[in-house]
Design goal:
Blueprint: H1 2-12, E1 22-34, E2 37-46, E3 52-57, E4 64-69, H2 71-83, E5 92-93, E6 104-121, H3 129-141
Parallel strand pairs: 5-6
Antiparallel strand pairs: 1-2, 1-6, 2-3, 3-4
Helix pairs in contact: 2-3
C-alpha cells in the first residue's frame, strides 16, 4: 500500500510527505510578474549583524520600501507558512492548457534547516498563502515608525 501512495505522489507531484523546515527563517522572497515586469515583490533577508530587513512594495508596480523587522514580525511570516502549509507546495505549477499571456510567480523561504522553493506560470497552489504573505508584508511597510 505504501508503494502505491509513493508512486501516486511522484506521478501527481503531490507533496503530502513534505514537512515544515526547522529553525529560524533566514530569508524569504515572493515575486509575481506580468508583461510590465514585477507586479509585486517582497524579500526578507538576515543581515550580517543579525538584523532582519524586509523590502516590499506597498502596491503593485510600486517602489520597494525597507523596514527592519522585530522577532514577532518575522514569526508572523512563519505562522502564515505553517497555517497555509506552504511547505507542501509543488516545485512547479503550470496550467493544463497553453497560455501565451499571463503571469509568473516564485516563492522561496530559507530556514536554518531546510527550504521551500516553488513557482509557476499562469497557475498557482490552492489556499491563501501567497496572498497572505503579500498582505502581511504590505501591512508592515505601511506601519508608522
Amino acid at each position: 500500500m505504501a508503494s502505491i501512495v509513493g508512486v501516486l505522489s511522484v506521478l501527481t507531484g503531490c507533496s503530502m510527505f513534505q514537512k515544515m523546515p526547522e529553525g529560524k527563517l533566514v530569508s524569504l522572497e515572493y515575486t509575481r510578474s506580468a508583461m510590465r515586469g514585477n507586479e509585486y515583490e517582497v524579500s526578507l533577508t538576515t543581515e550580517a549583524n543579525g538584523d532582519v530587513v524586509l523590502r516590499a512594495m506597498k502596491e503593485n508596480y510600486g517602489e520597494l520600501i525597507e523596514k527592519k523587522l522585530t522577532e514577532e514580525e518575522v514569526a508572523g511570516f512563519v505562522s502564515i507558512i505553517k497555517e497555509e502549509k506552504m511547505y507542501k507546495y509543488k516545485e512547479k505549477y503550470r496550467p493544463l492548457l497553453k497560455v501565451l499571456d499571463g503571469y509568473m510567480w516564485h516563492f522561496n523561504a530559507q530556514f536554518e534547516q531546510g527550504s521551500i522553493d516553488s513557482g509557476g506560470s499562469n497557475a498557482s497552489p490552492g489556499g491563501e498563502g501567497l496572498n497572505r504573505i503579500k498582505a502581511y508584508a504590505i501591512s508592515i511597510v505601511n506601519r508608522k515608525e
